[in-house]
Q: What sequence folds into this?
């Protein structure tokens, strides 16, 4: 993988604080910055092949995901009505999707009534333009940002940089990612692939005002970030945030966070711009009583996150006196149009599915080639990019994402809104296969599956095939295993032996058994 | 067509609407059925608001977040305030805070009473950054999660004052403490338009190796005086 | 009871020991075991790889073969596999409906209602814990993902194993983590699969068990393939093979590759 040097990615850097050219040459940019935040890099198997070689990454991820899994399990176990909350959360989100046009109109009306300005964006370019124009109208050459997946998804920082506006990420992990000129690898903890020593090195080289004797103790690193950002918070004129929830019946928006950087951004600047996906709605204010229980326990594994901010339009004398809400489509309506896949829009971005996913734990977030990694990314990314390919068959790298799972089901078990990710993965695989059907090219998988279907749909044919396979019994040699097989089984035998077929199939044995012959013999 | 019309039409098409075109990918979806929302979760806890069980749980949970908690009587409150803020140097308080709470404060602690915005509001963000502590009341607290909610009432003030100073001393009355989140939300629902800050311990981060570090951008120290 | 056996395609052709042991066990417990010869496969491989059209004839064959269970001719269908049972229960009808075959879907549902994974049949239907087995070896148990999360068999297999005489049952660290098989995942994402397998085999080896057992031969083929390549000297056995083992007719330990026999 190339470094960021010379790539457009450099534009993402915060252009001040004395980062030198020499320090910029340090190899932290694991990922060159993509033009498409939802489609970068290679297909999943190829990207995973690279990331799996990174021993440090696997160690960091193994440690971090094990820690958070334990925390989540402990705080979920102490809630007696957890399953009832999940049932409600799931149904409320389903209801939101069913009533989306009315709820969006209601939200708009309520935000407007309280002095906010509502904008609509069909796609990333339109949303970026709206935010840029607001910042320009305020004369700002710098905006402070609360961590937000929606703005990651539209590549807002890069767009603002092109327009000469520096977007400063204020969440600690986002700051680490931004300083390293890296890409996030986790929805909640974007720098989960970094350990403390790497973070110290990044701060020393890139922060500009980091204490020279900075250690790698997390507390010291956090204090360095506090000092670095303090001045930005106190002077910022414009802040940009996402939203965890938008309440239709009151026009209230919610941001759930830990560090207080969110409160700083949502409170101190004169102007606040919030970019929210249209699916983030909940119908009523009291529905918060469900989601504010589900989200923190599922995401950070805390009974409650340190800070949650709720605001409704503009409050005279308190907080930003100008508030803009940008409602973003950017492919969401394509997801909504899919009867099976639409429940991917129920996601509240807790990232519990990433933390329990055995695939994510090994390969890390970058292998998914999207700002949405992990199991939810594997169903969301292809659908969000449907208009430009997405699930349209083997030609699109995103079409490899639904196969990035063993269907082990751990994601479904922890999802606070009960998104049946394994079933959606299977459905998307079927769509990809169907999209490829019309194409006149040789596909060994399709040929094999067709042949297998013919054999496996008849007991007689299957019995004959099994009997034929027993002819291979001798292939196993003394140990009874095959250690080197031709493709495609060679992918298997690279790391695993394959058992040689037995000298007798089960049905052969059973025929003898049914005729009263003696049971027994070797395995 | 405006972006608004376009997006709403796409949503309608995705939900099977006819005569509104298609989504960006050219799709028209199926119409979802009617959704029944089950509400089998607990609407309230086992214990009454302000009951000893609930207060004990609140203290336990707040301490788990590394907040400093003291249970005091109404009479003891002013002295307890003075004890916590004695070395703060300066303190900002919201305009509606009870004067009596500040009475025993040592003379060398400068008190800024924050009037609401307007020409007399003297304190900008940089000013607040130079102040040692903030003292507020609260709207409601939830014991199960160790959460205190401020909703901008006169004794809680605008959001900036409880954010920028490094020490937050928050006074919670026993009768404000409920056990569960649904109970808290239903109290707050009386004024959903008020800006709210839900606080569960001092600011914290787990961004480095999922190790929790208390105290980042928000107040690094949270003191709670629970008045019984 | 009259119990029809769905042997599963993989066990029929590659691991006949598991269905053989299922027959021995159930006959020892006094039941009639029927093997409908029309059976081949439940269709899971096709479904999970996205070939739903190609899955339809496979599913049709399964459903029609086992339809007598829905009509009461057999009391139950037993499957020595969690994932095949899961596919029968959660996928077959969905695939039929998607293909517009509502009648077939209804029959599939009726058959699946009478279909049980082996530990479900033994514990839930037959009410057993102790099946009279004897197996004097050190064993660790891997709960396969689909038995755990699609079927929710919970600790039923462990209840059965704990009741085996003279068994030395040791806990597998990080037992509930997937072994990385995932059907065609092991081929399509071979590198990731191998990384998951490496962790699973390391955990198995840390138990110093002689045998790792599970309710699915597909996962065991994967774990066993890794252990064999490492010449770890740890064998794989299906739960049925351990439960079928008695003093009179013990199931022999499987052959394993060990460093000592390295060629």
A:
């Amino acid at each position: 993988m190339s470094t960021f040097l010379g790539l457009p990615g450099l534009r993402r850097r915060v252009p001040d604080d004395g980062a030198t050219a020499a320090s910029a040459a340090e190899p932290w940019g694991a990922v060159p910055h993509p033009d498409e935040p939802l489609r970068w890099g290679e297909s999943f198997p190829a990207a995973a092949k690279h990331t799996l070689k990174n021993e440090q990454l696997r160690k960091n991820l193994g440690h971090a995901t094990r820690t958070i899994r334990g925390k989540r399990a402990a705080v979920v176990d102490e809630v007696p009505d957890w399953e009832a909350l999940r049932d409600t959360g799931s149904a409320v989100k389903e209801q939101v999707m069913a009533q989306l046009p009315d709820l969006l109109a209601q939200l708009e009306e309520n935000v407007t009534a309280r002095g906010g300005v509502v904008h609509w964006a069909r796609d990333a370019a339109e949303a970026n333009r709206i935010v840029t124009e607001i910042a320009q109208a305020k004369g700002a050459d710098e905006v402070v940002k609360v961590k937000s997946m929606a703005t990651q998804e539209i590549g807002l920082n890069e767009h603002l940089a092109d327009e000469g506006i520096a977007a400063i990420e204020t969440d600690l992990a986002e700051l680490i990612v931004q300083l390293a000129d890296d890409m996030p690898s986790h929805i909640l903890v974007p720098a989960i692939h970094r350990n403390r020593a790497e973070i110290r090195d990044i701060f020393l080289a890139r922060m500009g005002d980091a204490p020279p004797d900075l250690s790698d103790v997390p507390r010291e690193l956090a204090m360095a970030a506090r000092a670095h950002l303090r001045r930005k918070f106190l002077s910022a004129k414009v802040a940009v945030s996402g939203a965890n929830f938008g309440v239709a019946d009151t026009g209230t928006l919610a941001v759930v966070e830990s560090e207080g950087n969110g409160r700083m951004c949502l409170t101190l600047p004169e102007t606040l711009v919030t970019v929210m996906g249209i699916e983030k709605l909940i119908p009523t204010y009291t529905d918060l009583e469900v989601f504010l229980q589900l989200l923190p326990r599922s995401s950070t594994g805390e009974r409650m996150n340190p800070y949650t901010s709720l605001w409704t339009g503009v409050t005279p004398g308190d907080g930003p006196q100008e508030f803009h809400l940008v409602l973003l489509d950017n492919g969401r309506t394509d997801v909504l149009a899919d009867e099976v896949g639409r429940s991917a829009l129920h996601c509240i971005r807790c990232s519990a599915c990433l933390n329990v996913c055995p695939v994510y734990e090994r390969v890390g977030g970058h292998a998914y080639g999207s700002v949405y990694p992990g199991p939810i990314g594997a169903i969301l990314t292809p659908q969000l990019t449907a208009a430009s390919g997405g699930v349209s068959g083997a030609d699109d790298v995103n079409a490899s994402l639904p196969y990035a799972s063993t269907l082990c089901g751990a994601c479904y078990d922890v999802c606070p809104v009960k998104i049946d990710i394994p079933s959606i993965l299977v459905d998307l695989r079927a769509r990809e296969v169907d999209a490829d059907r019309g194409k006149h090219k040789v596909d060994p998988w399709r040929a094999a599956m067709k042949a297998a279907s013919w054999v496996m749909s008849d007991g007689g044919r299957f019995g004959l095939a099994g009997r034929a396979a027993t002819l291979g019994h001798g292939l196993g040699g003394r140990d009874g295993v095959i250690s080197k097989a031709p493709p495609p089984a060679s992918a298997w035998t690279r790391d695993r032996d394959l058992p040689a077929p037995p000298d007798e199939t089960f049905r052969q044995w059973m025929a003898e058994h049914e005729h009263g012959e003696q049971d027994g013999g070797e395995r | 067509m405006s972006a608004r019309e376009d997006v709403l039409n796409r949503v309608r098409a995705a939900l099977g609407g006819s005569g509104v075109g298609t989504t960006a990918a050219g799709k028209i979806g199926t119409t979802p059925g009617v959704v029944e929302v089950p509400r089998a979760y607990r609407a309230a806890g086992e214990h009454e608001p302000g009951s000893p069980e609930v207060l004990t749980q609140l203290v336990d949970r707040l301490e788990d977040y590394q907040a400093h908690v003291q249970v005091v009587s109404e009479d003891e409150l002013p002295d307890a305030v003075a004890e916590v803020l004695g070395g703060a140097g300066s303190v900002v308080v919201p305009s509606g805070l009870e004067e009596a709470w500040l009475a025993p404060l040592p003379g060398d602690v400068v008190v800024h009473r924050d009037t609401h915005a307007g020409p007399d509001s003297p304190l900008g963000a940089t000013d607040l950054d130079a102040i040692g502590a903030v003292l507020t009341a609260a709207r409601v607290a939830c014991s199960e999660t160790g959460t205190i909610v401020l909703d901008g009432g006169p004794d809680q003030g605008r959001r900036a004052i409880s954010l920028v100073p490094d020490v937050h001393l928050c006074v919670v009355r026993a009768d404000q403490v409920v056990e569960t989140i649904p109970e808290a939300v239903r109290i707050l629902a009386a004024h959903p338009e008020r800006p709210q800050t839900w606080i569960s311990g001092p600011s914290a981060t787990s961004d480095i190796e999922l190790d929790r570090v208390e105290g980042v951008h928000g107040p690094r120290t949270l003191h709670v005086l629970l008045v019984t | 009871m009259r119990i029809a056996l769905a042997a599963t395609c993989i066990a029929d052709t590659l691991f006949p020991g598991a269905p053989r042991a299922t027959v021995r066990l159930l006959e020892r417990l006094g039941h009639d075991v029927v093997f409908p010869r029309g059976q081949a496969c439940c269709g899971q491989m096709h479904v999970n790889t996205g070939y739903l059209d190609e899955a339809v004839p496979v599913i049709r064959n399964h459903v029609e073969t086992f339809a007598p269970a829905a009509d009461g001719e057999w009391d139950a269908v037993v499957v020595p596999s969690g994932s095949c049972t899961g596919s029968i229960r959660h996928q077959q009808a969905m695939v039929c409906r998607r293909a517009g075959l509502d009648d077939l879907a209804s029959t599939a549902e009726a058959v699946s209602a009478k279909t049980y994974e082996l530990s479900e049949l033994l514990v839930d239907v037959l009410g057993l814990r102790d099946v009279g087995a004897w197996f004097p070896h050190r064993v660790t148990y891997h709960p396969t993902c689909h038995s755990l999360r699609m079927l929710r068999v919970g600790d039923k297999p462990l209840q059965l194993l704990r009741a085996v005489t003279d068994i030395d049952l040791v806990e597998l660290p990080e037992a509930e983590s997937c072994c990385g098989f995932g059907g065609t995942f092991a081929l399509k994402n071979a590198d990731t699969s191998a990384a998951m397998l490496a962790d699973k085999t390391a955990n198995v080896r840390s138990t110093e068990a002689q045998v790792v057992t599970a309710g699915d031969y597909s996962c065991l083929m994967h774990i066993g393939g890794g252990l064999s390549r490492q010449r770890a000297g740890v064998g794989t056995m299906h739960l049925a093979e351990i439960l079928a083992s008695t003093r009179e007719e013990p199931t022999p330990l499987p052959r394993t590759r060990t460093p000592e026999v390295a060629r």
Q: What stands out?
A: Chain A touches chain C through 78 residues (CB under 8 Å). Residues 1-26, 517-523 of chain A have pLDDT under 50 and may be disordered.
